[in-house]
Amino acid sequence: MSAQGSAVRDAQRSKVYAAEEFVRTLFDRAAEHGLPVVEFFGSQLTLPPEARFGSIAAVQRYVDAVLALPAVRRHWPAVSSLTVRARQAATAAHYENRDGAAVIAVPDRHAADWAMRELVVLHEMAHHLCSAQPPHGPEFVATMCTLTELVMGPESGHVLRVVYAEEGVRLALSR
Questions:
Q1: Residue 10 phi/psi, 5° resolution?
Q2: What pairs with residue 156 in β-bridges?
Q3: Helix 154-166 crosses helix 138-152 at what angle (to 10 degrees)?
Q4: Cα torsion 119, 125, 129, 135: sign
Q5: Domain range annotation of the chain
Q6: How are beta strands 101-107 and 83-87 bridged, if at all?
Q7: From CA 175, how far away is CA 165, in angstroms rounded?
Q8: How many CA atoms within 13 Å lie on the side-chain side of 160?
Q9: Distance between CA 40 and CA 135 in Å, rounded?
């Protein structure tokens, strides 16, 4: 929509979610088979282990540690703190920023094991680091790729970029 102050259509949201679901499945299969080396578009890649969390407190410790990483601080020097809380609904995680209080809400292990994993938490953290609209637009996607690369390694960032491209997700040039 073009009117000032109106909501911006999040046109590539479903494509972003589909791409990330594929990437999570790739990580799941590698973990299930105990083989971090995967065949990926004709190349062999070694995927890092993906962190899994047993509690909201563990997610909070992870978020604090990621935001304190020197590489993350260099890339986003003005980043503010981020609080993690449990979410009642098991179908989604989300990010909110109300009056400067940034929060990610994640279904806990008892409600939804799928959400208590590194790639989901990084997705919500990327919303914290990128305020551009629409919420899953090219700038967000670039932020997600960069954050994943800085935290999980270049292979993970590469996998995300390729899968996003395969899904037709537009990506802003990294800064």
A1: -90, 70
A2: none
A3: 150
A4: positive
A5: 13-166
A6: parallel
A7: 18
A8: 26
A9: 28
Q: Which of 96, 99, 100, 74 is nearest to 87 (CA)?
A: 96
Cα 129 from Cα 120, distance rounded (Å): 15
Per-residue model confidence as pLDDT tens digits over 90-131: 788 999 998 889 999 998 766 677 889 999 999 999 999 999
pLDDT in tens, 43-100: 899 999 999 999 999 999 999 999 999 999 999 999 999 999 998 877 889 999 988 8
**How far, CA to CA in Å, does 136 sit from each of 45, 98, 112, 171, 172?**
27, 19, 22, 10, 11
79 CB-contact burial (10 Å; exposed 0-12 / middle 13-18 / buried 19+): middle
What are the phi and psi torsion angles at 83 (to 5°)? -100, 145
Q: What is the distance of C-alpha 167 from the center of its chain?
A: 16
Q: What is the pTM of this model?
A: 0.91
Token code pair at residue 4: 């000032």
Please check whether residue 15 is in contact with residue 168, taking contact to mean a CB–CB distance below 8 angstroms.
yes
